[in-house]
């Protein structure tokens, strides 16, 4: 919790014994208008127990309360107890804190000792890594950073789709029409081509489907020829995937894909049988979920092969035993809601209380020019194309606007990739997003490049200031920053930790993208209205200190979103 909210809650708690600090703090609001103060405590809920009107209670509390030092005053308005910051003190405290804590500003220890497993990205081998997978990757990566900032130990897992019937299809296609050189050169594209070709041919010749199933069964039974092809397809694909991850700046602690659970499913199936949870239907094995209003969860087909759900159940048990997670988060689009609901139920029926710690975090689909992104027919916007397109676009802009910039290529990568990530993260998680080249590459308005540019602008001001002025900035006087425009910037810095906590509580990085945009906009208003380097010395020092604090906060915010903050643009 924000340190000042905590103070407000403590001050209130002293006069409201029937509520504990925790409850009080959830009730504290940030009023919409300045005359209502900076934090407000509503008294409506207390009317019943205290047998007084909410107004009288608010008046009573504000008469008796000991106002924490950082606030200038505390008074009631209607049924609210309103707290007003002492702007001078807040400026000095906040700026001092940011400059001392630097990149750990806004962090906390709330998660110490707790493990969070995050299952994200998870593209399917022999299928393309498309903009749909981008959402999983960047949301998962941002959550990884946000949770880590709050003291949790995160374990990032790439549950690659490296097992399943699609391999049977690709093996058949490869044996009929494949070209080894093409696969080595461009594995993702060539394997996709084979996959698409398979479906075209199978329409004319359905027996290919049987052949594909057979090959997958051979893989599951350990057949050497089948496995060596599978291994080769996977290795080549992972090599190419790693290039994309490097470009995105995303890392995983484990690449334990679906195939990792091959030898771990049998004991789980046995356990399911021992617990009397399995039923058979037409030779297939499943868990009946009718009582819970869901279709059965299929765990084994009639030919003995296992399914996506079997591997998910096994993986969850493995992760619980191996990491003893506090929470395990799964990022996929919402079309998989039922799949997760089904197998989470199975974990519950197996008697594992920790089923409550499994969290599916669904996100909206990505459509491209109004159409769903599909694999089978090969209509996909490949992620690499998007990223390279963005980088090229930034290169052009740099050539036009700042041709003498050092590290042009690095900057183009940071800004181009940042634009794509920010564009994706600024959408509310559950919303469908329509991918268009226009929005992804927009450099104006509420975008990643706008925030990056604001950060670079702050860096540039600091570069121009003399060393002496910067060192004096540490002893700045808060009274020079009490005007409304400066105060707005300081308030955004003050609320930074709340927005990180909120983003974590709701598993919603867009809360943080919104906050860094707000901070960047507030700062640009400040910069537009207030000269910094040409101000009188004392005022200049205070303003420089604010510039430094904004720079620090923006760069931390971007880094929590998985976006770089170049110093020059
Ligand atoms: N490979 C799957 C897909 O692309 C996503 C896997 C998500 N993780 C999981 N444990 N099921 O749809």
UniProtKB/TrEMBL annotation:
Enzyme class (EC, first level) = ligase
Q: Where is this protein chiefly located?
A: cytoplasm
For this UniProt record, the keywords arranged alphabetically read as follows: Aminoacyl-tRNA synthetase, ATP-binding, Cytoplasm, Ligase, Nucleotide-binding, Protein biosynthesis
Q: Where is this protein localized, as stated in its record?
A: Cytoplasm
List the InterPro entries. aa-tRNA-synth_I_CS, Arg-tRNA-ligase, Arg-tRNA-synth_N, Arg-tRNA-synth_N_sf, ArgRS_core, DALR_anticod-bd, Rossmann-like_a/b/a_fold, tRNAsynth_Ia_anticodon-bd
Listed PANTHER family: ARGININE--TRNA LIGASE, CYTOPLASMIC (PTHR11956:SF5), ARGINYL-TRNA SYNTHETASE (PTHR11956)
Name the record gives this protein:
Arginine--tRNA ligase
Gene name tied to this protein: argS
């Amino acid at each position: 919790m924000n340190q000042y909210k905590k103070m407000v809650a403590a001050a209130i708690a002293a006069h409201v014994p029937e509520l504990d600090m925790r409850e009080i703090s959830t009730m504290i609001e940030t009023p919409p208008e300045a005359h209502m103060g900076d934090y407000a405590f509503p008294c409506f809920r207390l009317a019943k127990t205290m047998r007084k009107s909410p107004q009288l209670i608010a008046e009573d509390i504000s008469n008796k309360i000991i106002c924490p030092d950082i606030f200038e005053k505390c008074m009631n308005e209607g049924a609210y107890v309103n707290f007003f910051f002492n702007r001078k003190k807040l400026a000095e405290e906040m700026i001092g804190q940011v400059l001392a804590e630097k990149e750990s500003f806004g962090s906390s220890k709330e998660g110490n000792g707790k493990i969070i497993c995050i299952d994200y990205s998870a593209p399917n081998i022999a299928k393309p890594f498309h903009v749909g997978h981008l959402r999983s990757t960047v949301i998962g990566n941002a959550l990884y950073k946000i949770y880590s900032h709050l003291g949790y130990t995160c374990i990032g897992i790439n549950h690659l789709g490296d097992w399943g019937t699609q391999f049977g299809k690709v093996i058949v296609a490869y044996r009929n029409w494949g070209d080894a050189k093409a696969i080595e050169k461009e594995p993702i594209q060539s394997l996709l081509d084979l996959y698409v070709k398979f479906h075209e041919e199978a329409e004319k010749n359905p027996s290919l489907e049987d052949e594909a199933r057979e090959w997958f069964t051979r893989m599951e039974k350990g057949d050497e020829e089948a496995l060596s092809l599978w291994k080769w397809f996977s290795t080549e694909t992972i090599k190419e995937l790693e290039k994309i991850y490097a470009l995105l700046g995303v890392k995983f602690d484990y690449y334990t894909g679906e195939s990792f659970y091959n030898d771990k499913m049998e004991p789980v199936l046995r356990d399911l049988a021992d617990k009397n949870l399995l039923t058979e239907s037409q030779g297939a094995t499943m868990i009946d979920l009718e009582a819970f209003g869901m279709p059965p969860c299929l765990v084994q087909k009639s030919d003995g092969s296992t399914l996506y759900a079997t591997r998910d159940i096994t993986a969850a048990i493995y992760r619980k035993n191996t990491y003893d997670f506090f929470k395990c988060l799964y990022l996929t689009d919402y079309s998989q809601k039922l799949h997760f609901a089904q197998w989470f139920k199975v974990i519950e029926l197996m008697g594992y209380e920790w089923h409550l710690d499994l969290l599916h975090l669904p996100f909206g689909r990505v459509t491209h020019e109004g159409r769903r992104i599909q694999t089978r027919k090969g209509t996909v916007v490949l992620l690499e194309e998007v990223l390279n397109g963005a980088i090229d676009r930034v290169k052009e802009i740099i050539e036009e606007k700042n041709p003498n910039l050092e590290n042009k290529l690095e900057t183009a990568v940071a800004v181009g990739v940042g634009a794509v990530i920010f564009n994706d993260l600024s959408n509310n998680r559950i919303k469908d997003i329509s991918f268009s080249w226009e929005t992804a590459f927009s450099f104006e308005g509420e975008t990643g490049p706008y925030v990056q540019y604001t950060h670079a602008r702050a860096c540039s001001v600091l570069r121009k200031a003399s060393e002496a002025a910067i060192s004096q900035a540490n002893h700045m006087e808060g009274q020079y920053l009490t005007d409304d425009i400066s105060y707005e910037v300081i308030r955004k810095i003050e609320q930074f930790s709340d927005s990180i906590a909120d983003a974590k509580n709701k598993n919603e990085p867009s809360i943080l993208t919104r906050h860094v945009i707000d901070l960047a906009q507030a700062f640009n208003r400040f910069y537009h209205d207030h000269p910094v380097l040409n101000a009188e010395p004392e005022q200049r020092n205070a303003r420089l200190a604010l510039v430094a604090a904004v720079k620090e906060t923006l760069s931390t915010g971007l880094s929590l979103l998985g976006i770089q903050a170049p110093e020059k643009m």
